[in-house]
Write a structure and sequence with these properties.
Strand 1 and strand 2 form a beta hairpin. A three-stranded antiparallel beta sheet has the order 2-1-3, with no helix packed on it. The relative contact order is 0.24. About 20% of the residues lie in helices and about 25% in strands. The protein has one domain.
């Protein structure tokens, strides 16, 4: 498990010097009833202010998020909306971190 300090450093490296919102989506792994293949099913979709990264880290450590896959946009938004028109700036194009 990644400690709280490392999580904060990770988010700060991506969003340092930028204001706005992080686009966050959580998914759970489910089996497709017809094909028996695993797929992701959306659970939550929300935005968190970049300046509230500490609050976000504490939230993501709660029991609700323990068994979920977390996907977040690396392009911060200037408002709470997930369209490309709402992208404020792009500092990172792609980021993938798999934690077990």
């Amino acid at each position: 498990m990644i400690n709280e300090t490392s999580k904060k450093e990770f988010f700060e490296a991506l969003f340092k010097g930028v204001e706005g919102y992080i686009d966050i989506r959580t998914f759970k792994v489910v089996k497709d009833k017809l094909t028996e293949k695993k797929k992701l099913e959306k659970v939550d979709y929300f935005f968190e202010r970049i300046k509230d990264i500490d609050r976000l880290i504490k939230l993501l450590e709660t029991k609700h998020f323990q068994n979920l896959n977390l996907h977040f946009g690396v392009a911060p938004r200037y408002r709470q909306s997930g369209t490309e028109k709402d992208v404020k700036i792009i500092k990172c194009f792609w980021c993938d971190l798999d934690c077990k």
